[in-house]
Amino acid sequence: MKDMNNSTVKPMKELHLKHNPIYSFVRENLGILIGLLLLCVILTIFSPVFLSKNNILNVLRQVATNLYIACAMTMVIILGGIDLSVGSIIALSGVVTGGMIAFDGYSIGVAVVAGLLVGSAVGAFNGLLISKTTIPPFIVTLSTMNIARGAAYVYTGGQPIRVMSDSFNFIGAGYLGEIPMPIIYLVIIVVVSVLIMSKSRLGRHIYAVGGNPTAAKFSGIKNSRVLFFAYLFSGLMASIAGIVLASRMFSGQPTAGQGAEMDAIAAVVLGGTSMSGGVGKIGGTVIGALIIGVLSNGLNLLGINSFWQYIVKGVVILIAVYVDFLKKGNK
């Protein structure tokens, strides 16, 4: 009887663990979590400054703007798409917001809303074309990448727009207690993204469309609406990143956001999202972005030329995509 009770309790404990979100998160991301931990240990050995409170907050602040974009990019890539326009949206939304404050005398609130609308409009344009035509997402977003970047240069005449406003600067450079504001936004955006992907019908539809668009369509899912939302959300997140960066730099820069799409894609694929679509989690993307951020910070602390960061990110993307290829080959 005692053995029967023990044999019953054990499966119940295992079942309880499987439904524990923390246990599930660790189990799903064990490999990259170990990689992140080892990276932190190595950097701590070579640079004692790495684990200081100021440096940790600095890493999180630097990672924040990448993660705003990467959360949306996760949805886009799960759908089997890509968004190359996010870096240019960062620049465009930043200069529009800064210009409306510095040149036109609009209030901070009106200028920020305008910046968000500009980025969302580019995202909506991407979503409309991709969902209503057969033009590949790569081509659509490559085109809007150039259009948005060109618009930022035309709007500014190629010059940065200086914004001397304490209220505006607080958005990206202010603190809530000891926590930088970009980290506060990051927590909110990650929570919202996780809720969308894991707790909403929209999230289930994103996985369904990414896994098998034809089956999703026959099951009654409006594929075009799902695609439109993902690219709209991507544009919105890029515009938030653009406004935060403009605030941190005290200016709208037409050159801002160059390479931001590569950083976001690196975080997403390193976090386990399949480039073929249908598979991925926001939690993995968060760890992927942290690895990219810690690597960049570590190279700076060790005095290694920042140009090496491009090589590191390229290698990281290649390894992550190759691991995804091996996983599919074993199935």
TrEMBL record:
Organism: Marispirochaeta aestuarii
Superkingdom, taxonomy of origin: Bacteria
Membrane topology label: Multi-pass membrane protein
Subcellular localization: Cell membrane
Protein name from the UniProt record: Ribose ABC transporter permease
InterPro entries membership: ABC_transp_permease
Keywords, ordered alphabetically: Cell membrane, Membrane, Transmembrane, Transmembrane helix
One term of GO molecular function: transmembrane transporter activity
